[in-house]
Design brief:
Two copies of one chain form a homodimer. Chain A is of the alpha+beta class. Helices cover about 40% and strands about 25% of the residues of chain A. In chain A, the strands form two sheets. In chain A, strands 1, 2, 3, 4 and 5 form a five-stranded antiparallel beta sheet that branches. The longest helix of chain A is centred in the middle third of the chain and has 26 residues. The structure holds a DNA duplex.
Chain lengths: ~230, ~230
Amino acid sequence: MTVTDNMLTCNCEGCELKSLFFENVSTLEIESICSRKVEREYQKGEIIIREGAEIHEFIYLKSGLVKLYHSGSNSREQIICFALPLDFVSLLSIFSEKRYIYSVAALEDSITCNIKMDEIISIATGNGRFALSLIEKVNKATDRIILDFLEVKQKRLYGRIAYILLYFAKSIYKSNSFDLPVSRKEIAEYIGMTVENVIRSLSDLRKDGIIKIFGPKIEIVDEGKLARIAELS
Amino acid sequence: MTVTDNMLTCNCEGCELKSLFFENVSTLEIESICSRKVEREYQKGEIIIREGAEIHEFIYLKSGLVKLYHSGSNSREQIICFALPLDFVSLLSIFSEKRYIYSVAALEDSITCNIKMDEIISIATGNGRFALSLIEKVNKATDRIILDFLEVKQKRLYGRIAYILLYFAKSIYKSNSFDLPVSRKEIAEYIGMTVENVIRSLSDLRKDGIIKIFGPKIEIVDEGKLARIAELS
DNA sequence: CGCGGCTTTGATGTTCATCAAGTAAAGTGG
DNA sequence: CCACTTTACTTGATGAACATCAAAGCCGCG
Protein backbone atom coordinates (compact mmCIF):
# COMPACT_ATOMS: atom_id res chain seq x y z
CA MET A 1 0.00 0.00 0.00
CA THR A 2 2.37 2.58 1.25
CA VAL A 3 4.53 1.93 -1.74
CA THR A 4 1.91 1.70 -4.43
CA ASP A 5 -0.31 4.56 -3.40
CA ASN A 6 1.41 7.27 -5.28
CA MET A 7 1.98 5.10 -8.30
CA LEU A 8 -1.65 4.91 -9.26
CA THR A 9 -2.78 6.99 -12.15
CA CYS A 10 -6.47 6.23 -11.88
CA ASN A 11 -8.94 7.96 -9.62
CA CYS A 12 -9.07 5.34 -6.92
CA GLU A 13 -6.39 6.80 -4.72
CA GLY A 14 -8.73 7.54 -1.84
CA CYS A 15 -10.59 4.28 -2.10
CA GLU A 16 -10.16 1.98 0.85
CA LEU A 17 -10.89 -0.97 -1.32
CA LYS A 18 -7.26 -1.09 -2.31
CA SER A 19 -6.01 -1.67 1.16
CA LEU A 20 -8.72 -4.11 2.07
CA PHE A 21 -9.25 -6.10 -0.99
CA PHE A 22 -6.41 -5.70 -3.39
CA GLU A 23 -3.58 -6.21 -0.99
CA ASN A 24 -2.21 -8.92 -3.17
CA VAL A 25 -2.80 -7.38 -6.53
CA SER A 26 -0.05 -5.71 -8.48
CA THR A 27 -0.21 -2.01 -9.26
CA LEU A 28 -0.63 -2.88 -12.90
CA GLU A 29 -3.67 -4.96 -12.19
CA ILE A 30 -5.19 -2.31 -9.98
CA GLU A 31 -4.75 0.24 -12.70
CA SER A 32 -6.36 -2.07 -15.18
CA ILE A 33 -9.34 -2.55 -12.90
CA CYS A 34 -9.63 1.09 -11.97
CA SER A 35 -9.68 2.18 -15.56
CA ARG A 36 -12.54 -0.17 -16.35
CA LYS A 37 -14.57 -0.07 -13.17
CA VAL A 38 -17.90 1.75 -13.10
CA GLU A 39 -19.30 3.72 -10.20
CA ARG A 40 -23.05 3.98 -9.82
CA GLU A 41 -25.13 6.20 -7.61
CA TYR A 42 -28.41 5.16 -6.08
CA GLN A 43 -30.93 7.17 -4.17
CA LYS A 44 -32.55 5.96 -0.98
CA GLY A 45 -35.12 3.37 -1.90
CA GLU A 46 -33.68 2.45 -5.28
CA ILE A 47 -33.06 -1.14 -6.17
CA ILE A 48 -29.44 -2.01 -6.89
CA ILE A 49 -29.79 -5.71 -7.62
CA ARG A 50 -32.94 -7.51 -8.56
CA GLU A 51 -33.37 -11.14 -7.54
CA GLY A 52 -33.19 -13.40 -10.56
CA ALA A 53 -31.07 -11.03 -12.65
CA GLU A 54 -27.94 -12.40 -14.28
CA ILE A 55 -24.67 -11.81 -12.48
CA HIS A 56 -22.25 -9.86 -14.63
CA GLU A 57 -20.53 -7.61 -12.17
CA PHE A 58 -18.76 -7.79 -8.91
CA ILE A 59 -20.23 -5.03 -6.78
CA TYR A 60 -19.10 -3.49 -3.55
CA LEU A 61 -20.51 -0.63 -1.55
CA LYS A 62 -18.45 2.54 -1.53
CA SER A 63 -20.76 4.72 0.52
CA GLY A 64 -24.26 4.53 1.92
CA LEU A 65 -26.25 1.69 3.44
CA VAL A 66 -28.11 -1.15 1.76
CA LYS A 67 -30.23 -4.14 2.60
CA LEU A 68 -30.00 -7.61 1.10
CA TYR A 69 -33.36 -9.31 0.94
CA HIS A 70 -35.08 -12.35 -0.40
CA SER A 71 -38.57 -12.60 -1.82
CA GLY A 72 -40.12 -15.55 -0.10
CA SER A 73 -42.48 -17.90 -1.89
CA ASN A 74 -45.53 -16.35 -0.27
CA SER A 75 -44.66 -12.85 -1.48
CA ARG A 76 -43.35 -11.77 1.89
CA GLU A 77 -39.93 -10.23 1.77
CA GLN A 78 -37.24 -11.34 4.19
CA ILE A 79 -34.23 -9.16 4.93
CA ILE A 80 -31.05 -11.22 5.02
CA CYS A 81 -28.67 -8.55 6.28
CA PHE A 82 -27.56 -4.96 6.02
CA ALA A 83 -24.32 -3.91 4.36
CA LEU A 84 -22.04 -0.99 5.09
CA PRO A 85 -19.39 0.66 2.95
CA LEU A 86 -16.58 -1.70 2.06
CA ASP A 87 -18.87 -4.63 2.49
CA PHE A 88 -19.36 -6.73 -0.54
CA VAL A 89 -22.75 -6.49 -1.96
CA SER A 90 -21.85 -9.42 -4.11
CA LEU A 91 -21.89 -11.99 -1.41
CA LEU A 92 -24.01 -15.01 -1.77
CA SER A 93 -24.16 -16.94 -4.96
CA ILE A 94 -21.63 -14.73 -6.70
CA PHE A 95 -19.35 -17.54 -7.61
CA SER A 96 -21.77 -20.39 -7.49
CA GLU A 97 -24.80 -19.19 -9.40
CA LYS A 98 -25.61 -17.56 -12.70
CA ARG A 99 -28.36 -15.41 -11.25
CA TYR A 100 -28.85 -13.47 -8.07
CA ILE A 101 -30.79 -15.30 -5.40
CA TYR A 102 -31.47 -12.08 -3.50
CA SER A 103 -32.19 -8.40 -4.13
CA VAL A 104 -30.31 -5.37 -2.88
CA ALA A 105 -31.84 -1.96 -2.24
CA ALA A 106 -30.43 1.32 -0.96
CA LEU A 107 -31.57 2.36 2.52
CA GLU A 108 -29.62 5.58 2.19
CA ASP A 109 -28.13 7.32 -0.83
CA SER A 110 -25.37 4.98 -1.90
CA ILE A 111 -22.52 4.62 -4.34
CA THR A 112 -21.34 1.27 -5.62
CA CYS A 113 -18.19 0.33 -7.43
CA ASN A 114 -18.81 -2.24 -10.15
CA ILE A 115 -16.21 -4.44 -11.77
CA LYS A 116 -16.86 -6.99 -14.47
CA MET A 117 -16.88 -10.53 -13.12
CA ASP A 118 -14.60 -11.59 -15.97
CA GLU A 119 -11.91 -9.35 -14.65
CA ILE A 120 -12.18 -10.50 -11.08
CA ILE A 121 -12.06 -14.09 -12.23
CA SER A 122 -9.16 -13.49 -14.53
CA ILE A 123 -7.15 -11.84 -11.78
CA ALA A 124 -8.04 -14.58 -9.33
CA THR A 125 -7.07 -17.23 -11.83
CA GLY A 126 -3.62 -15.80 -12.20
CA ASN A 127 -3.20 -14.73 -8.61
CA GLY A 128 -3.91 -17.25 -5.92
CA ARG A 129 -3.24 -14.84 -3.08
CA PHE A 130 -5.93 -12.56 -4.37
CA ALA A 131 -8.33 -15.47 -4.69
CA LEU A 132 -7.59 -16.54 -1.13
CA SER A 133 -8.29 -13.08 0.22
CA LEU A 134 -11.55 -13.20 -1.71
CA ILE A 135 -12.50 -16.45 0.00
CA GLU A 136 -11.62 -14.96 3.33
CA LYS A 137 -13.81 -11.90 2.86
CA VAL A 138 -16.77 -13.76 1.44
CA ASN A 139 -16.44 -16.34 4.17
CA LYS A 140 -16.42 -13.71 6.87
CA ALA A 141 -19.54 -12.12 5.51
CA THR A 142 -21.56 -15.30 5.28
CA ASP A 143 -20.33 -16.42 8.70
CA ARG A 144 -21.65 -13.18 10.13
CA ILE A 145 -25.03 -13.74 8.49
CA ILE A 146 -25.36 -17.29 9.74
CA LEU A 147 -24.26 -16.46 13.28
CA ASP A 148 -26.69 -13.55 13.40
CA PHE A 149 -29.50 -15.79 12.22
CA LEU A 150 -28.75 -18.25 15.00
CA GLU A 151 -28.42 -15.44 17.51
CA VAL A 152 -31.73 -13.83 16.60
CA LYS A 153 -33.54 -17.14 16.36
CA GLN A 154 -33.07 -17.96 20.01
CA LYS A 155 -34.39 -14.61 21.24
CA ARG A 156 -37.95 -13.52 21.71
CA LEU A 157 -39.54 -10.45 20.21
CA TYR A 158 -38.51 -8.02 22.91
CA GLY A 159 -34.92 -9.23 22.85
CA ARG A 160 -34.75 -9.14 19.06
CA ILE A 161 -35.80 -5.50 19.00
CA ALA A 162 -33.21 -4.64 21.62
CA TYR A 163 -30.64 -6.56 19.61
CA ILE A 164 -31.29 -4.74 16.36
CA LEU A 165 -31.31 -1.33 18.05
CA LEU A 166 -27.93 -2.06 19.54
CA TYR A 167 -26.75 -3.26 16.16
CA PHE A 168 -27.68 0.04 14.52
CA ALA A 169 -26.17 2.03 17.37
CA LYS A 170 -22.90 0.09 17.55
CA SER A 171 -22.17 -1.25 14.11
CA ILE A 172 -23.79 1.32 11.85
CA TYR A 173 -24.03 4.72 13.47
CA LYS A 174 -21.56 4.43 16.34
CA SER A 175 -23.87 6.59 18.41
CA ASN A 176 -26.72 6.08 20.84
CA SER A 177 -28.83 8.56 18.92
CA PHE A 178 -29.65 7.97 15.29
CA ASP A 179 -32.34 7.97 12.64
CA LEU A 180 -33.63 4.50 11.93
CA PRO A 181 -32.76 3.82 8.29
CA VAL A 182 -35.48 1.22 8.05
CA SER A 183 -39.24 1.25 8.45
CA ARG A 184 -40.95 -0.72 11.18
CA LYS A 185 -42.02 -3.10 8.46
CA GLU A 186 -38.41 -3.70 7.45
CA ILE A 187 -37.40 -4.41 11.01
CA ALA A 188 -40.20 -6.94 11.05
CA GLU A 189 -38.89 -8.46 7.83
CA TYR A 190 -35.45 -8.79 9.34
CA ILE A 191 -36.32 -10.35 12.67
CA GLY A 192 -39.24 -12.36 11.30
CA MET A 193 -42.19 -10.88 13.13
CA THR A 194 -45.20 -8.68 12.35
CA VAL A 195 -45.11 -4.88 12.11
CA GLU A 196 -47.59 -4.47 14.91
CA ASN A 197 -45.50 -6.40 17.37
CA VAL A 198 -42.34 -4.57 16.38
CA ILE A 199 -44.13 -1.32 17.19
CA ARG A 200 -45.48 -2.68 20.43
CA SER A 201 -42.00 -3.69 21.55
CA LEU A 202 -40.59 -0.29 20.64
CA SER A 203 -43.39 1.34 22.62
CA ASP A 204 -42.71 -0.92 25.57
CA LEU A 205 -39.03 0.03 25.52
CA ARG A 206 -40.10 3.66 25.44
CA LYS A 207 -42.57 3.23 28.30
CA ASP A 208 -39.85 1.57 30.35
CA GLY A 209 -37.63 4.60 29.78
CA ILE A 210 -34.97 2.59 27.97
CA ILE A 211 -35.23 4.42 24.66
CA LYS A 212 -36.82 7.60 23.34
CA ILE A 213 -38.65 7.75 20.02
CA PHE A 214 -39.24 10.80 17.86
CA GLY A 215 -40.65 9.46 14.61
CA PRO A 216 -37.75 7.76 12.90
CA LYS A 217 -35.27 9.10 15.44
CA ILE A 218 -34.18 6.74 18.20
CA GLU A 219 -32.25 7.62 21.29
CA ILE A 220 -30.92 4.92 23.54
CA VAL A 221 -31.21 6.18 27.10
CA ASP A 222 -30.22 3.15 29.14
CA GLU A 223 -27.76 1.15 27.11
CA GLY A 224 -27.00 -1.27 29.89
CA LYS A 225 -30.60 -2.25 30.33
CA LEU A 226 -31.05 -2.58 26.57
CA ALA A 227 -28.02 -4.85 26.37
CA ARG A 228 -29.38 -6.99 29.17
CA ILE A 229 -32.70 -7.34 27.37
CA ALA A 230 -30.95 -8.23 24.12
CA GLU A 231 -28.90 -10.82 25.97
CA LEU A 232 -31.60 -12.48 28.02
CA SER A 233 -34.31 -12.38 25.38
CA MET B 1 -9.68 -36.95 -14.87
CA THR B 2 -9.76 -39.74 -17.34
CA VAL B 3 -6.15 -39.05 -18.09
CA THR B 4 -4.81 -38.71 -14.61
CA ASP B 5 -6.64 -41.57 -12.97
CA ASN B 6 -4.19 -44.29 -13.76
CA MET B 7 -1.20 -42.12 -13.09
CA LEU B 8 -1.86 -41.83 -9.40
CA THR B 9 0.24 -43.87 -7.11
CA CYS B 10 -1.63 -43.07 -3.93
CA ASN B 11 -4.78 -44.78 -2.72
CA CYS B 12 -7.25 -42.12 -3.76
CA GLU B 13 -8.19 -43.60 -7.10
CA GLY B 14 -11.74 -44.34 -6.16
CA CYS B 15 -12.23 -41.08 -4.36
CA GLU B 16 -14.71 -38.73 -5.98
CA LEU B 17 -12.98 -35.79 -4.41
CA LYS B 18 -10.58 -35.72 -7.32
CA SER B 19 -13.24 -35.09 -9.90
CA LEU B 20 -15.16 -32.65 -7.78
CA PHE B 21 -12.59 -30.69 -6.07
CA PHE B 22 -9.22 -31.10 -7.67
CA GLU B 23 -10.26 -30.61 -11.27
CA ASN B 24 -7.71 -27.89 -11.60
CA VAL B 25 -4.90 -29.44 -9.67
CA SER B 26 -1.98 -31.12 -11.35
CA THR B 27 -1.35 -34.81 -10.89
CA LEU B 28 1.79 -33.97 -9.03
CA GLU B 29 -0.09 -31.86 -6.53
CA ILE B 30 -2.76 -34.49 -6.06
CA GLU B 31 -0.12 -37.09 -5.34
CA SER B 32 1.48 -34.77 -2.87
CA ILE B 33 -1.83 -34.27 -1.11
CA CYS B 34 -2.82 -37.91 -1.22
CA SER B 35 0.42 -39.02 0.29
CA ARG B 36 -0.01 -36.68 3.20
CA LYS B 37 -3.73 -36.76 3.79
CA VAL B 38 -5.20 -38.57 6.78
CA GLU B 39 -8.42 -40.53 6.88
CA ARG B 40 -10.30 -40.76 10.14
CA GLU B 41 -13.18 -42.96 11.17
CA TYR B 42 -15.89 -41.88 13.55
CA GLN B 43 -18.70 -43.84 15.08
CA LYS B 44 -22.25 -42.63 15.25
CA GLY B 45 -22.43 -39.99 17.94
CA GLU B 46 -18.73 -39.14 18.02
CA ILE B 47 -17.65 -35.54 17.80
CA ILE B 48 -15.52 -34.71 14.78
CA ILE B 49 -14.97 -31.01 15.37
CA ARG B 50 -15.35 -29.19 18.65
CA GLU B 51 -16.44 -25.56 18.59
CA GLY B 52 -13.59 -23.32 19.67
CA ALA B 53 -10.85 -25.72 18.59
CA GLU B 54 -8.07 -24.39 16.40
CA ILE B 55 -8.39 -24.97 12.69
CA HIS B 56 -5.47 -26.96 11.35
CA GLU B 57 -7.02 -29.20 8.77
CA PHE B 58 -9.29 -29.01 5.84
CA ILE B 59 -11.85 -31.74 6.30
CA TYR B 60 -14.34 -33.28 3.96
CA LEU B 61 -16.77 -36.10 4.45
CA LYS B 62 -15.99 -39.28 2.57
CA SER B 63 -18.83 -41.43 3.85
CA GLY B 64 -21.52 -41.21 6.49
CA LEU B 65 -23.69 -38.36 7.67
CA VAL B 66 -22.90 -35.52 10.04
CA LYS B 67 -24.52 -32.50 11.64
CA LEU B 68 -23.01 -29.04 12.03
CA TYR B 69 -24.21 -27.32 15.16
CA HIS B 70 -23.64 -24.29 17.27
CA SER B 71 -23.76 -24.01 21.03
CA GLY B 72 -25.93 -21.01 21.76
CA SER B 73 -25.20 -18.67 24.62
CA ASN B 74 -27.95 -20.18 26.74
CA SER B 75 -26.51 -23.67 26.43
CA ARG B 76 -29.10 -24.75 23.89
CA GLU B 77 -27.62 -26.35 20.80
CA GLN B 78 -28.74 -25.24 17.37
CA ILE B 79 -28.21 -27.44 14.33
CA ILE B 80 -26.99 -25.41 11.37
CA CYS B 81 -27.20 -28.08 8.69
CA PHE B 82 -26.53 -31.68 7.80
CA ALA B 83 -23.70 -32.75 5.52
CA LEU B 84 -23.46 -35.68 3.15
CA PRO B 85 -20.42 -37.37 1.62
CA LEU B 86 -18.44 -35.03 -0.61
CA ASP B 87 -19.74 -32.09 1.30
CA PHE B 88 -17.16 -30.01 2.98
CA VAL B 89 -17.27 -30.26 6.67
CA SER B 90 -14.91 -27.36 6.70
CA LEU B 91 -17.37 -24.77 5.63
CA LEU B 92 -17.88 -21.73 7.71
CA SER B 93 -15.02 -19.81 9.12
CA ILE B 94 -12.41 -22.02 7.57
CA PHE B 95 -10.63 -19.21 5.84
CA SER B 96 -11.71 -16.35 8.00
CA GLU B 97 -11.21 -17.56 11.54
CA LYS B 98 -8.53 -19.22 13.61
CA ARG B 99 -10.98 -21.34 15.53
CA TYR B 100 -14.11 -23.27 14.70
CA ILE B 101 -17.33 -21.42 15.36
CA TYR B 102 -19.35 -24.62 15.22
CA SER B 103 -19.10 -28.28 16.14
CA VAL B 104 -19.51 -31.33 13.94
CA ALA B 105 -20.75 -34.72 15.08
CA ALA B 106 -21.37 -37.99 13.27
CA LEU B 107 -25.02 -39.00 12.91
CA GLU B 108 -23.95 -42.25 11.27
CA ASP B 109 -20.59 -44.01 11.15
CA SER B 110 -18.49 -41.69 9.05
CA ILE B 111 -15.09 -41.37 7.43
CA THR B 112 -13.41 -38.03 6.86
CA CYS B 113 -10.45 -37.11 4.73
CA ASN B 114 -8.21 -34.56 6.38
CA ILE B 115 -5.67 -32.38 4.69
CA LYS B 116 -3.42 -29.86 6.38
CA MET B 117 -4.64 -26.30 5.86
CA ASP B 118 -1.11 -25.26 4.95
CA GLU B 119 -1.23 -27.50 1.95
CA ILE B 120 -4.58 -26.30 0.73
CA ILE B 121 -3.45 -22.73 1.10
CA SER B 122 -0.16 -23.35 -0.61
CA ILE B 123 -1.88 -24.99 -3.56
CA ALA B 124 -4.46 -22.23 -3.75
CA THR B 125 -1.77 -19.58 -3.64
CA GLY B 126 -0.03 -21.02 -6.63
CA ASN B 127 -3.14 -22.08 -8.48
CA GLY B 128 -5.91 -19.53 -8.94
CA ARG B 129 -8.23 -21.96 -10.68
CA PHE B 130 -8.15 -24.23 -7.71
CA ALA B 131 -8.81 -21.30 -5.40
CA LEU B 132 -11.77 -20.24 -7.53
CA SER B 133 -13.30 -23.69 -7.45
CA LEU B 134 -12.87 -23.57 -3.68
CA ILE B 135 -14.81 -20.31 -3.50
CA GLU B 136 -17.50 -21.80 -5.66
CA LYS B 137 -17.97 -24.84 -3.47
CA VAL B 138 -17.86 -22.98 -0.20
CA ASN B 139 -20.23 -20.39 -1.60
CA LYS B 140 -22.70 -22.99 -2.73
CA ALA B 141 -22.75 -24.58 0.68
CA THR B 142 -23.33 -21.36 2.61
CA ASP B 143 -25.96 -20.26 0.09
CA ARG B 144 -27.83 -23.48 0.71
CA ILE B 145 -27.69 -22.90 4.46
CA ILE B 146 -28.96 -19.34 4.26
CA LEU B 147 -31.75 -20.16 1.83
CA ASP B 148 -32.87 -23.05 4.00
CA PHE B 149 -32.90 -20.79 7.05
CA LEU B 150 -35.13 -18.33 5.23
CA GLU B 151 -37.32 -21.12 3.93
CA VAL B 152 -37.84 -22.72 7.32
CA LYS B 153 -38.32 -19.39 9.07
CA GLN B 154 -41.48 -18.55 7.18
CA LYS B 155 -43.15 -21.88 7.91
CA ARG B 156 -45.02 -22.93 10.98
CA LEU B 157 -44.31 -25.99 13.04
CA TYR B 158 -46.41 -28.42 11.01
CA GLY B 159 -44.89 -27.21 7.75
CA ARG B 160 -41.36 -27.36 9.12
CA ILE B 161 -41.77 -30.98 10.10
CA ALA B 162 -43.14 -31.83 6.67
CA TYR B 163 -40.22 -29.94 5.13
CA ILE B 164 -37.54 -31.80 7.04
CA LEU B 165 -39.13 -35.19 6.40
CA LEU B 166 -39.13 -34.45 2.68
CA TYR B 167 -35.55 -33.29 2.97
CA PHE B 168 -34.45 -36.58 4.48
CA ALA B 169 -36.45 -38.57 1.95
CA LYS B 170 -35.29 -36.64 -1.11
CA SER B 171 -31.82 -35.34 -0.37
CA ILE B 172 -30.44 -37.90 2.00
CA TYR B 173 -32.05 -41.29 1.57
CA LYS B 174 -33.68 -41.01 -1.85
CA SER B 175 -36.52 -43.13 -0.54
CA ASN B 176 -39.89 -42.59 1.08
CA SER B 177 -39.01 -45.08 3.77
CA PHE B 178 -36.01 -44.50 5.99
CA ASP B 179 -34.66 -44.53 9.51
CA LEU B 180 -34.50 -41.04 10.98
CA PRO B 181 -30.81 -40.41 11.64
CA VAL B 182 -31.68 -37.81 14.24
CA SER B 183 -33.55 -37.81 17.49
CA ARG B 184 -36.73 -35.79 17.97
CA LYS B 185 -34.63 -33.44 20.02
CA GLU B 186 -32.24 -32.87 17.13
CA ILE B 187 -35.10 -32.14 14.78
CA ALA B 188 -36.25 -29.58 17.31
CA GLU B 189 -32.76 -28.09 17.41
CA TYR B 190 -32.74 -27.77 13.66
CA ILE B 191 -36.13 -26.18 13.11
CA GLY B 192 -36.04 -24.16 16.31
CA MET B 193 -38.92 -25.63 18.28
CA THR B 194 -39.41 -27.80 21.34
CA VAL B 195 -39.19 -31.59 21.39
CA GLU B 196 -42.76 -31.94 22.55
CA ASN B 197 -44.15 -30.04 19.63
CA VAL B 198 -42.00 -31.90 17.15
CA ILE B 199 -43.48 -35.13 18.48
CA ARG B 200 -46.99 -33.70 18.40
CA SER B 201 -46.60 -32.73 14.74
CA LEU B 202 -45.23 -36.14 13.85
CA SER B 203 -48.17 -37.74 15.65
CA ASP B 204 -50.60 -35.47 13.81
CA LEU B 205 -49.08 -36.44 10.47
CA ARG B 206 -49.45 -40.08 11.49
CA LYS B 207 -53.05 -39.61 12.59
CA ASP B 208 -53.84 -37.94 9.28
CA GLY B 209 -52.44 -40.99 7.48
CA ILE B 210 -49.72 -39.01 5.75
CA ILE B 211 -46.82 -40.86 7.34
CA LYS B 212 -46.25 -44.04 9.33
CA ILE B 213 -43.96 -44.22 12.32
CA PHE B 214 -42.24 -47.28 13.75
CA GLY B 215 -39.82 -45.96 16.32
CA PRO B 216 -37.06 -44.28 14.35
CA LYS B 217 -38.41 -45.62 11.06
CA ILE B 218 -40.47 -43.22 8.97
CA GLU B 219 -42.56 -44.11 5.96
CA ILE B 220 -44.06 -41.38 3.83
CA VAL B 221 -47.43 -42.62 2.66
CA ASP B 222 -48.90 -39.57 0.94
CA GLU B 223 -46.01 -37.60 -0.51
CA GLY B 224 -48.26 -35.14 -2.34
CA LYS B 225 -50.07 -34.15 0.80
CA LEU B 226 -46.81 -33.85 2.72
CA ALA B 227 -45.39 -31.60 0.01
CA ARG B 228 -48.47 -29.41 0.14
CA ILE B 229 -48.16 -29.06 3.91
CA ALA B 230 -44.48 -28.21 3.60
CA GLU B 231 -45.32 -25.64 0.96
CA LEU B 232 -48.26 -23.95 2.62
CA SER B 233 -46.89 -24.09 6.13
C1' DC C 1 -58.44 18.30 -0.21
C1' DG C 2 -58.37 13.42 -0.27
C1' DC C 3 -55.76 9.45 -1.12
C1' DG C 4 -52.38 6.03 0.13
C1' DG C 5 -48.63 4.66 2.88
C1' DC C 6 -46.63 4.28 7.45
C1' DT C 7 -47.50 4.17 12.24
C1' DT C 8 -49.95 3.23 16.46
C1' DT C 9 -53.20 1.04 19.78
C1' DG C 10 -56.72 -2.28 21.19
C1' DA C 11 -59.30 -6.69 21.07
C1' DT C 12 -59.30 -11.48 19.93
C1' DG C 13 -57.78 -15.97 18.71
C1' DT C 14 -54.02 -19.14 17.33
C1' DT C 15 -49.67 -21.13 17.87
C1' DC C 16 -46.47 -22.60 20.56
C1' DA C 17 -43.56 -23.21 25.03
C1' DT C 18 -43.72 -24.83 29.48
C1' DC C 19 -44.92 -27.90 33.08
C1' DA C 20 -46.23 -32.35 34.58
C1' DA C 21 -46.55 -37.17 34.23
C1' DG C 22 -46.19 -41.51 32.30
C1' DT C 23 -44.33 -45.22 28.97
C1' DA C 24 -40.80 -47.50 26.48
C1' DA C 25 -36.13 -48.65 25.47
C1' DA C 26 -31.44 -49.03 26.64
C1' DG C 27 -27.47 -49.04 29.33
C1' DT C 28 -25.28 -50.14 34.41
C1' DG C 29 -23.88 -52.47 38.32
C1' DG C 30 -24.50 -55.98 41.72
C1' DC D 1 -29.93 -61.99 34.94
C1' DC D 2 -32.54 -58.73 37.26
C1' DA D 3 -33.34 -54.41 39.75
C1' DC D 4 -31.94 -49.67 38.79
C1' DT D 5 -30.89 -45.64 36.54
C1' DT D 6 -30.87 -42.99 32.56
C1' DT D 7 -32.39 -41.39 28.19
C1' DA D 8 -35.67 -40.95 24.51
C1' DC D 9 -40.30 -40.66 23.46
C1' DT D 10 -45.24 -39.48 24.14
C1' DT D 11 -49.61 -37.20 25.71
C1' DG D 12 -52.33 -33.74 28.15
C1' DA D 13 -53.25 -29.32 30.46
C1' DT D 14 -52.20 -24.53 30.97
C1' DG D 15 -50.53 -20.08 30.04
C1' DA D 16 -47.50 -16.95 27.47
C1' DA D 17 -46.05 -15.12 23.21
C1' DC D 18 -47.36 -13.81 19.09
C1' DA D 19 -50.38 -13.18 14.64
C1' DT D 20 -54.39 -11.43 12.93
C1' DC D 21 -58.12 -8.27 12.47
C1' DA D 22 -60.01 -3.73 13.03
C1' DA D 23 -59.81 1.14 13.47
C1' DA D 24 -57.87 5.50 13.84
C1' DG D 25 -54.12 9.16 13.56
C1' DC D 26 -50.34 11.11 11.00
C1' DC D 27 -47.94 12.84 7.07
C1' DG D 28 -46.44 13.67 2.38
C1' DC D 29 -48.00 14.13 -2.33
C1' DG D 30 -50.59 14.72 -6.45
